[in-house]
Write a structure and sequence with these properties.
- The structure is a single chain.
- The protein folds into two domains: 296 residues, 3-Layer(aba) Sandwich (Rossmann fold); 76 residues, no CATH class.
- 29% of the residues lie in helices and 12% in strands.
- It contains 14 helices and 14 strands.
- It has a four-stranded parallel sheet with strand order 1-4-5-12, with helices on both faces. The chain has a two-stranded antiparallel ribbon with strand order 2-3. A two-stranded antiparallel sheet has the order 6-7.
- The radius of gyration is 23 Å and the shape is globular.
């Protein structure tokens, strides 16, 4: 496949055909990635550049119908301001470009929680924060709104206090669907530094990893329901979230010291916990409750979260004089938990694709290729924060170009499975991270 081979696709296509698929009524089921979330928020142009929007545009060339999204009223971002690049001054007085909350001048969030279900049903039912674990929960939209974790569903669910997310997904009576659910069943655990429980026996809290039996039951119910009347579709598996910029931007050995600084720290620690420093690059010191001293130096294969306060690292002594709190670190055990359950969940997704004879989109492998980089439409992309072109300023979600690339990878799988020739989106016409 062209995308997996990281080559430049041939945009000259034959006459578009739908193959054995029927794209006349398309519904996109998923979470924040499906909703078009970007830059740590949900805003109108982010939604308009979502991968389902790109797919729907291409589907229209082969008989696809209208595609409605529950768009936000403006650009500021909701529930928090979106991130933008701006010149900032660090605690050391250095000026550089860094992500900051959108400063305005227009804050156009009025009406963000106004229920607009009367204009539905909607084709894009992606909801930021939603998990497979949540998908059969009656009154999910009201619960998410009340808890503040995922208020967006309250905007377009017609019966927020009683309806299940699955009920909303079925309203279109789709002839074709995409389903990209599951990332949040491990992501909350990962982005909280492994602070949640692993596969708790009851209903998982937002920072827990969903138990495999609950994931399997809910996922199979969702796909059984979506295909009950003959709809075809594409199931998208879960990327290894530990490979995204949120976890890979700050290197474990990012503590650079002069000889005098190293000598002072060595004297202060006195060898406790095996901590040792030298001139040059050093591994940060992190909290570890399993260590006799409550701290140790981070291992090379462990991860520091992008949300760690940069001034705390630079001027506050975090990682040197003070251990980085465990909530900003994924240790070996926590990384293994994320990978283990990602593998289990992806097997459940693959089994469902086989059972229902649906296209399977291996997004896990594809996004993994970004570590070494890919070329598309003559442009080079990789997984680097800000400059890589694919990931937005939150280090988790995608840029418009990133969503277009993902849409094309999904189309590649759809064309292969259903004998279709749906044209690819032109990636080069969409933005990456916008520089001031």
């Amino acid at each position: 496949m062209c995308l997996l081979a990281a080559c430049k696709p041939n945009l000259k296509t034959n006459t578009p055909t739908k193959g054995s698929a029927d794209f006349s009524r398309y519904v996109a089921v998923g979470n924040s990635l499906t909703a078009g979330y970007a830059d740590n928020s949900l805003y109108r142009t982010g939604q308009e550049n979502s991968y389902p929007e790109r797919l729907s545009e291409q589907f229209k060339m082969v008989g696809g119908g209208s595609f409605k999204q529950p768009l936000m009223p403006g650009e500021s971002g909701y529930p928090s301001p979106k991130l933008v690049l701006a010149l900032t001054t660090s605690c050391t007085g250095v000026r550089s470009l860094s992500p900051i909350p959108y400063p305005g001048p227009v804050f156009d969030t009025a009406g963000s929680l106004t229920n607009i279900s009367i204009s539905g049903p909607y084709n894009n039912v992606g909801v930021p924060g939603i998990r497979v674990a949540d998908y059969l929960l009656p009154g999910y939209a009201f619960v998410a709104y009340a808890l503040g974790g995922a208020p967006y569903a309250y905007r377009f669910y017609s019966s927020p206090t009683t309806e299940r997310p699955l009920d909303e997904a079925l309203k279109i009576n789709a002839t074709f669907f995409t389903c990209w659910l599951g990332s949040n069943d491990v992501l909350g655990y990962a982005t909280s530094g492994g602070s949640g429980a692993v596969a708790p026996p009851g209903f998982p809290l937002p920072n827990d990893i969903t138990a495999a039996p609950l994931f399997q039951n809910n996922y199979e119910t969702v796909i059984d329901s979506l295909t009950a009347h003959g709809a075809k579709g594409a199931l998208i598996n879960i990327p290894d979230v530990t490979t995204i910029p949120f976890f890979t931007t700050i290197p474990p050995n990012g503590l650079t010291l002069r000889k005098g600084q190293a000598d002072s720290l060595n004297a202060a620690y006195g060898g406790a916990g095996g901590v040792k420093f030298a001139a040059g690059a050093n591994n940060f010191v992190i909290q570890d409750t399993t260590s006799p001293f409550g701290f140790r130096q981070i291992k090379n294969d462990e991860l520091i979260l992008l949300t760690v306060p940069q001034d705390s690292l630079t001027c506050g002594g975090w990682g040197s004089i003070k251990p980085i709190p465990a909530s900003f670190v994924l240790d070996e055990t926590e990384i293994n938990n994320v990978k283990t359950y990602t593998t289990q969940f992806n097997q459940i997704i693959a089994t469902a694709a086989t059972k229902h004879n649906l296209a399977l989109v291996d997004m896990n492998s594809f996004l993994g290729t970004l570590q070494s980089g890919i070329s598309f439409d003559g442009i080079r992309f990789n997984a680097k924060f800000v400059t890589g072109g694919v990931f937005s300023l939150d280090g988790v979600h995608l840029t418009p170009r990133g969503y277009a690339i993902v849409a094309n990878h999904i189309l590649d799988a759809i064309n292969s499975k259903y004998g279709a020739s749906v044209p690819m989106a032109n990636v080069s016409q969409y933005n990456g991270v916008i520089f001031p």
